[in-house]
Design goal:
The chain is α+β, with helices and mostly antiparallel strands. The chain is built from three helices and five strands.
Length: 140
């Protein structure tokens, strides 16, 4: 049975699910940041997914990157699967802006996360789920 890594569970807000992936919002108000986690037990690398799962993840990832970019008009969309801290396969989609706190460096390990206030979280949740609604369900 699939379970989300405890660190991802702690550091994110569930937005819903796509056919293959859980869709999470990183709880860091410094960056618009969505994470996809394929609901496949024991997978740490993209190549461990079946060909069909790889295709589905690519579709979901491209959908998130495009929708998030359209929503926030980023200067650059960083899409990456690192797994050095959390080994469970997950794909980051981070909207970046020239002049943001860590530009042009990666966001990982730089500064401290700034959690959303309840009001900010609710607003961002509504905005992102609206642009992802074509594929998103509530995860239940």
């Amino acid at each position: 049975m699939f379970t989300l890594d405890p660190r991802l569970e702690r550091d994110t807000i569930l937005l819903g699910e796509f056919p293959l992936s859980k869709v999470l919002l990183m709880n860091d108000a410094r960056y618009p940041w969505v994470i996809l986690v394929p609901k496949v037990t024991g997978v740490t690398e993209l190549f461990q997914l079946s060909a069909e799962q790889q295709q589905q993840l690519t579709l979901e990832s491209n959908f998130v990157a495009k929708a998030l970019n359209n929503l926030v008009q980023a200067d650059k969309m960083n899409v990456a699967a690192l797994g050095n801290v959390v080994s469970q396969l997950h794909i980051h989609h981070v909207a970046r802006y020239q002049g943001d706190e860590t530009w042009p460096n990666p966001v990982w390990g730089k500064g401290e996360a700034v959690p959303y206030s309840e009001q900010e979280r609710d607003a961002v949740y509504q905005q992102i789920t609206a642009v992802l609604s074509d594929l998103l369900n509530d995860g239940n």
